[in-house]
Amino acid sequence: MCRLFGMSSAPARTRAIFWLLDAPDSLCRQSRHQPDGTGLGYFAAGGAPRVHKSPIAAYADRCFAQEARQVESEMFLAHIRFASTGGLAERNTHPFLQDGRLFAHNGVIEDLPALDAELGPARSRVQGETDSERFFTLVSRETEARGGDVAAGIEHAARWVARNLPLYALNLIITTPDELWALRYPDTHELHVLDRPGGGQYGCRHLDHCGTEGRIRVHSDDLATTPATVVASERMDDNPCWRPMEPGELLHIAPDRTLTCRIALPEEPTHRLALTDLRPEAAASQRLA
Question: What is the pLDDT of residues 64-102, one digit of tens each?
């Protein structure tokens, strides 16, 4: 199953180390089981997005590992891909970038010709073959139509998909230089959030998060004093303040790190898919490792 990780330390810039090659419980180790691509997105001091991604496994991409060790940003977005739609190519690897925003997704949307028809002229923005980038383009179009309101763009795009297309899962994270949005829909896959004070649970510790099954590991000494909010596919430490997002919940982290949540999609998908309904490659991409 694809893995998502997003973190906000806004308005402070913090340095984080993403282990890829040498940690026992590393992103690289996960990529040996989910080898279709790895990506890391963040923002430079002036707000320019930076994306490093590769369509090969992280353990085979030393350049990615070296760059990941030197990341400083207010926002971070990491993704490990297990391909369900689209070949192994950089254009199909998350995160995707549009309008200064970064996007990563875990799930499956079917009937892509119908989605292409809905996109209309906006379809020209899609560079790859994935359902994920197509959906991101729909979010971008709906956001623009609503005066730049990203939450409204996500909600309208997700509602259209839920009503009109066969859908297995639609978990996503979108980041700008100082904001983050996350959606869990429906209840197929988990998505967890931790609003972490500086120093964490005990008030004196740096951040050292690792997924319970060794999926992603991230370390930040800066967060011994700086608060942060983390959104991830799984709980990444024993902090009791982790909570699962509710099905249909849309989360927003503002530039001052104010956290707001609401149920944006209370209804079930009209054409909800089960794992057994998926194409074999799509089904393989969605199983828990």
Answer: 544 555 689 999 998 775 555 555 666 788 799 999 999
Contact 49, 41 (CB under 8 A): yes
- pTM of the predicted model as reported, rounded to 2 decimal places: 0.86
Q: Which CATH number does the domain housing residue 12 bear?
A: 3.60.20.10
C-alpha 129/C-alpha 87 separation (Å) is 8
Number of domains in the chain: 1
- Measure the CA–CA gap between 242 and 79, rounded to whole angstroms: 20
Q: Are strands 71-73 and 192-196 parallel, antiparallel or unpaired?
A: unpaired
pLDDT digits (tens, 9 = 90+) for 214-245: 456 677 788 888 889 999 888 877 788 899 99
Q: In what order do the strands lie in the sheet with 207-210?
A: 71-73, 14-18, 217-220, 207-210
Structural domain boundaries enclosing 117 = 3-286
Residue type, 195: D
Q: Are strands 101-109 and 96-98 parallel, antiparallel or unpaired?
A: antiparallel
- Count Cβ atoms within 10 A of the Cβ of residue 229 and give its class: 0-12 exposed, 13-18 middle, 19 or more buried: buried
